[in-house]
């Protein structure tokens, strides 16, 4: 059976690649918002196929759209389609326009004819070329799509979705394990195995409070407010999933 596997790595684009990322973010947002505006104005149900066909006409009117990955532009329309599907199913509210001021940005591209490749500690993306990434493990399977994301701290990441063939044979031992969640110890099994409480919140609480107080003194929307928001976000994005989570996985299996 086919199993989807996701990988996330930090990437280190040069200045030219960073500018192209920002341009692709902007173009994707432009098409998303334009298609959403036209749907709201017409008062009709959103249709993905005509919206994707419209991209060709828009490239003639707005030539700067040609500078970025065309698959990423189509993905922007597909993202809007997914948002409308969830809305029609009453799972979410009506789609909202994407703001230029949003610090978190992303776009998605798909693997077609070898346009996405991995080699050593570099990844090749359409229009962007080869980029160095922090390789922490091997990517297994066939790459299907890649999402480039910029977080609020200004760091860039790639999320890779791959498909791998997997034959899963689980031995039914009919055995159970008792787990007890506590305060002093995070988790204790009936066999006496313990996982210590990492107390991450207490460790970073003072840093978070200081960053929040500083941001509260800034004028909302100002450049200093946005700078402090980046610092605050960076302090909240400390890794809260170290060995403890993997220890739980080990015990559960």
TrEMBL record:
Stretches assigned to the Probable transposase IS891/IS1136/IS1341 domain: 164-231
NCBIfam families per the UniProt record, alphabetical: guided_TnpB
Span of domain Transposase putative helix-turn-helix: 1-41
Organism (species): Thalassobacillus cyri
Protein's recorded name: Putative transposase
Domain of life (superkingdom): Bacteria
């Amino acid at each position: 059976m086919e199993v989807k596997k996701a990988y996330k790595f930090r990437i280190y684009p040069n200045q030219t690649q960073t500018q192209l990322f920002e341009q692709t973010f902007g173009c994707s947002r432009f098409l998303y918002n334009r298609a959403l505006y036209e749907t709201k104005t017409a008062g009709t149900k959103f249709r993905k196929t005509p919206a994707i066909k419209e991209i060709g006409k828009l490239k003639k009117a707005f030539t700067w759209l040609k500078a970025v990955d065309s698959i990423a532009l189509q993905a922007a329309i597909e993202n809007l389609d997914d948002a409308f599907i969830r809305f029609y199913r009453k799972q979410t509210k009506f789609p909202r326009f994407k703001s230029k001021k949003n610090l978190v940005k992303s776009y998605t591209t798909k693997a077609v004819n070898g346009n996405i490749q991995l080699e050593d500690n570099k990844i090749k993306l359409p229009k962007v070329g080869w980029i160095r990434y922090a390789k922490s493990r091997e990517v297994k399977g066939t790459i299907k799509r890649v999402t480039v994301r910029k977080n609020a701290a200004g760091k860039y990441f790639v999320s890779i979705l791959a498909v791998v063939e997997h034959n899963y044979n689980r031995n039914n031992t009919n055995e159970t394990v008792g787990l007890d969640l506590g305060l002093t110890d995070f988790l204790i099994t009936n066999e006496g195995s313990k996982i210590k409480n990492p107390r991450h919140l207490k460790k970073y609480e003072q840093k978070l409070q200081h960053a929040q107080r500083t941001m509260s003194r800034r004028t909302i929307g100002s450049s200093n407010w946005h700078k402090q928001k980046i610092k605050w976000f960076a302090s909240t994005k400390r890794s809260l999933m170290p060995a403890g989570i993997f220890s739980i996985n080990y015990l559960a299996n």
